[in-house]
Amino acid sequence: MEEIVVTWVQVLMSGMEYQTFCSCRKCKNDIITLSLNNLPNYYVTTEEWRKRIFGNLNTEENRKWINKRIINAIHVVGQYPKH
Question: A Pfam family for this UniProt protein (predicted)?
């Protein structure tokens, strides 16, 4: 889940709709942390299971669900930055 969230945060923060939000390292880390706290954990020990979990999460429905949590985290951190 962490790999997906980190990638999506970087993609979203570079988009036009989030240009006014702070994109410093601290805020990005806060967004990632808040997003991960609102998503289920998946722990794997092998590359095979990593690919399997990623495949399960990589559906349009799950991508939308994850995306909503990240967007919510961007807005929360934007309202209450810690710097």
Answer: ComFB
